[in-house]
Structure formats: structure tokens, C-alpha cells
Write a structure and sequence with these properties.
Blueprint (H helix, E strand, L loop, with lengths): L2 H17 L1 H4 L2 H22 L5 H18 L2 H13 L10 E4 L1 H4 L3 H6 L1 H7 L3 E4 L3 E2 L13 E5 L6 H13 L3 E6 L3 E3 L3 H7 L3 H4 L4 E2 L3 H7 L14 E4 L4 E4 L6 E3 L5 H16 L4 E4 L17 H17 L4 E4 L5 H5 L14 E3 L1 H13 L3 H8 L9 E3 L14 H6 L4 H12 L11 E6 L4 E5 L2 H5 L1 H7 L2 H13 L1
Parallel strand pairs: 1-2, 2-5, 5-11, 11-12, 12-13, 13-14
Antiparallel strand pairs: 3-4, 6-10, 7-9, 8-9, 15-16
Helix pairs in contact: 1-3, 3-4, 3-14, 4-13, 4-14, 13-14, 16-17, 21-22
């Protein structure tokens, strides 16, 4: 960062504080704002400097941060202070997590709170609750099509129940993780409904077009996420006569982050979730956040700038909060979400170590660790203040994004090896104890993924079905080995 820029940003901050003298009264907030201001200024204007109202919207963003900080309760502020003093609290190796669906595990949020003794007996001190905000009854993608970010799904409880759970967890030194679905909303979200009703302001929150000219320009380079069930990346809405970008499913409308008003809205929602007592936010589908014609619209530089900007906002208004990058791509591409160069460690504090997860299951199937060991040797090291989040399984499928040169180095053909792994973990290979399911098979190229719990893939499900103690003992041993 050059000196002239720093001085320009400093002068701009002092001018803004003079215009809003009430902000200076909060010394903690003003100190963090002053420390982070050059980054906020630089990142915001990198994305939105060409917007006609950039200066006014940047001021609105700063006021939003002040407002959310004022709303943050005393308990959470104390946690913020303690974590700032500790530094990198999320990477000291003490966190042991479990991911679960509230309804399937305990019925409600209150039910989860009543089971905290059980989790602690297991040594679990971090709970990742699968999406629990309000979604439509039918088209909800398992919680990833949010219709109201300000409400918990009524069958699971209320926002007060979420806050109560957070308070109890914090009293036990436990950490709460929640998904933040920020690439898209449900088509039943109030913004989408307003857009369908003809509200041009809300239409600009999404990608909506009257004909196929621009959609076809996007489609020329956009891959299909779900070619079997949701082919194409645009959906025709006859009630408004528009094509809407829907990269995942037809009812999930992609947000247009080139519109700075979308950034403001989604920053406010992020900080609202942090103010419920959520410690770590899993940023869903981060590679897809920025769209550009002529590209695959994944992992674009602007997506990284956007996440850095969100992180800078959180450091000012909810400094005890951390981000997990949900980016299921090649290891070196995932590592970029930690931040690079001067932004190292200032984008997402954590990222899923998807490569380790895949290679562990590969070693179990092949009875060989050479591919695992090579993958670990070449795994990018996270920068200071960030860390890989190692995991065995999650709700997502297992995508076999191997480095093909690594597979060839073992004397294996990449396509044949992928086919073997899929067959092994779907129980379609002699001697396999697994009971996974083939997922998202693409007949065009033969690509497929694997879906299944750790218990199903390790053979516990099959052993229980067979009611054989010896099989169960071996399956549990496989599970524990992982």
C-alpha cells in the first residue's frame, strides 16, 4: 500500500468522522475502523469505484457497520475482546467439530441445547448446524434456498432459541458454526417476489434479461453445476417475461454483486447472524460470487476482493467472528481463499481441506497411502492467522478432483481410477463394504460423485444390515482409522 493512498484514505476517514461525530464517542469501534479503513476503502472502490453513487454508498456501509456494532450485545463484545487478545483463536488445534441437521438429530434448537452434555462427553466443542433459516416447503435445496434470512425455520424454533443455544454453548466454551448462503436467494425471498412484481430496483439485485442475447453470452463459458437435474444456468419466468440466472437450481436466483446495494444488504445480514451469537460463518459457494461474461464465473479475482471486503467489515463490527471458505476446487485454488500476498490471512480464516478428505477415502479403498502422502506433501501451507479445516465427511458429495499427474505417478489411469473409487463406494465392486450412492452422474463425460455418510462408506451400515458382529467390528475399525 503506497503512502499517498494511505494518506488519502486517512484524510477521507477524518472527513467522514467529522460528518458523523457521534461515531467518535465509541473508542473501540473507532479504533478498529481506523485500523481497517484503508482496506475497506481500497476494496470497496476496487469493486464499485465506477458506480455513480459510490461515495454515498460507501458512507452507508460505514454507518451500517456502526449500527450492527451498537446492536451487538455485551456478552458477544466480551468474547470479541478475549478472542482479539488471544489471536487466531480458531487455529490452536483445540476445536473438534460435528456437523448435523437439527431436525434429524434433536428435532429443534432447544433439543440441541439439551444434548450439549452428550456432545461434550464425546469431546465435541464445535457444532456446525446445517442451514436452519426459513426456506420454502418444497423448493428449498435442503436449506440452501433462503426465503427469509431473519427467521429460523418455524419447525426448528425461533431466533431467540438460536440466541439461547449460543449463550449456553459459550458458557461451556463451545463454538457455533452456521451456513451463510450468500450466492443466491430463494425465488420466494421478498426481493425476488418484488422483482417478479416489476420492482426495477429489486430486479437489479439479480441477473434478469428480456431475451437470450446476454444469457447466451454467459452460457457459452458457464459450466453446468447439476447437468442432470438443473441443466443450463438461466430460467424463464413467464410472469415477468425475463430470463433469470439460476446457476444451481431454477428456484435459486443468483445475486448480482456488481450492484453495491446487494453488498450492503448481504453485509447487514452477515452481521445480523454474527449478532445472534454465531462464531464461525461458512460462506457457501464462494467461488461463484462474481459473474463475468466469457468466463466460467468461478474463482474470479472480484470474488476474492468481495470476500476480503466482507471479512474487513466483520473485523470492524463483529471482530470475534471467523469465516470458512466452502470452495470445493483444486487445493491451490482453495488456498487462494485464505488471501494472497498482502491479503494473506485476511480473506477466510478457515477453508475445508477437501483434498485430504478425498485422499483419505482413496487410501481406504486402495489400501495404499502413496497418493495420500504425495497430496499432503504438496498441499499448500495456509498463511499466518489461517488454517485448513480437516474433516472426514460433510453433507456435500465427494468430488474426485484429483491431480491427474499424481494418479499417473502411481501407475493408474485417471479415468479408470475414478471409476473404481465410485464403484467401490457405491458397493458396486467385489468385496466393497460401502453403501454410498452415485451422485450427479454426467453421461456426457462419465463423471460422477459419491454421496454417503462416513458410517455408510466405511461399512457400518452394511454390517448392521447383516447383523454380523465381526463385520461391524472391522467397519468401526476402518471408521476410527480415518
Amino acid at each position: 500500500m503506497n503512502v499517498p493512498f494511505f494518506r488519502r484514505a486517512e484524510a477521507d476517514l477524518h472527513r467522514w468522522l467529522d460528518e458523523h461525530p457521534e461515531v467518535r464517542e465509541d473508542a473501540d469501534f473507532t479504533t478498529r475502523l481506523a485500523t481497517t479503513y484503508p482496506s475497506l476503502y481500497r476494496l470497496f472502490y476496487r469493486l464499485y469505484g465506477g458506480h455513480g453513487e459510490a461515495s454515498e454508498l460507501f458512507s452507508q456501509l460505514l454507518l451500517l457497520l456502526r449500527e450492527r456494532w451498537q446492536e451487538r450485545d455485551t456478552r458477544l463484545r466480551e468474547i470479541d475482546r478475549e478472542r482479539l487478545l488471544r489471536g487466531s483463536w480458531y487455529r490452536d488445534g483445540s476445536l473438534v467439530g460435528m456437523q448435523l441437521y437439527v431436525d434429524r438429530f434433536a428435532g429443534t434448537l432447544e433439543g440441541i441445547r439439551e444434548e450439549l452434555d452428550y456432545f461434550q462427553d464425546l469431546g465435541v466443542n464445535m457444532l456446525h448446524l446445517m442451514p436452519l433459516l426459513q426456506t420454502p416447503d418444497e423448493h428449498n435445496d435442503g436449506g440452501y434456498a433462503v426465503s427469509d434470512y431473519g427467521a429460523v425455520e418455524s419447525s426448528l424454533g425461533t431466533m431467540e432459541d438460536l440466541r439461547s443455544l449460543s449463550r449456553t454453548m459459550h458458557s461451556r466454551d463451545m463454538v457455533l458454526v452456521l451456513d451463510y448462503v450468500l450466492n443466491h436467494t430463494s425465488d420466494e425471498h421478498r426481493w425476488a417476489q418484488a422483482a417478479l412484481a416489476g420492482d426495477e430496483v429489486r430486479q437489479d439485485y439479480y441477473f434478469m434479461y428480456a431475451d437470450r442475447v446476454i444469457p447466451d453470452m454467459y452460457e457459452s463459458a458457464l459450466p453446468e453445476v447439476f447437468p442432470e437435474t438443473a441443466p443450463g444456468n438461466f430460467t424463464w419466468r413467464p410472469e415477468i417475461g425475463r430470463w433469470v440466472m439460476t446457476v444451481f437450481h431454477s428456484y435459486q436466483w443468483d445475486l448480482n454483486y456488481s450492484n453495491p446495494r446487494v453488498l450492503l444488504e448481504m453485509t447487514g445480514i452477515l452481521l445480523d447472524l454474527a449478532n445472534q451469537g454465531v462464531d464461525i460463518l461458512r460462506l457457501d459457494a464462494v467461488p461463484y460470487l462474481w459473474k463475468r461474461i466469457g468466463t466460467g464465473s468461478q474463482n474470479l479475482p472480484e470474488a476474492h476482493v468481495l470476500v476480503r471486503l466482507l471479512n474487513a467489515c466483520a473485523r470492524v463490527a463483529a471482530p470475534g467472528t471467523a469465516f470458512i471458505a466452502e470452495a470445493i476446487v483444486q487445493p491451490r485454488e482453495i488456498a487462494r481463499y485464505f488471501g494472497e500476498d498482502e491479503w494473506a490471512g485476511r480473506e477466510c480464516e478457515l477453508a475445508y481441506n477437501a483434498s485430504l478428505m478425498v485422499l483419505l477415502w482413496d487410501a481406504l479403498a486402495t489400501h495404499r497411502t502413496s497418493l495420500l502422502r504425495r497430496g499432503l506433501r504438496e498441499l499448500p501451507q495456509p498463511p499466518m492467522d489461517s488454517a485448513w479445516l480437516n474433516y472426514l465427511r460433510c453433507h456435500d458429495d465427494i468430488g474426485l478432483g484429483y491431480d491427474e499427474d499424481h494418479i499417473r505417478s502411481q501407475g493408474w489411469d485417471p479415468a479408470m481410477h475414478r471409476d473404481f473409487i465410485v464403484r467401490y463406494y457405491t458397493g458396486d465392486y467385489p468385496g466393497s463394504p460401502a453403501r454410498g450412492a452415485r451422485f450427479m452422474y454426467n453421461p456426457k463425460n462419465g463423471d460422477a460423485r459419491i454421496s454417503g455418510t462416513a458410517a455408510s462408506l466405511a461399512g457400518i451400515e452394511a454390517a448392521l444390515e447383516a447383523d454380523e458382529a465381526d463385520l461391524l467390528e472391522r467397519a468401526i475399525a476402518r471408521h476410527l482409522a480415518l
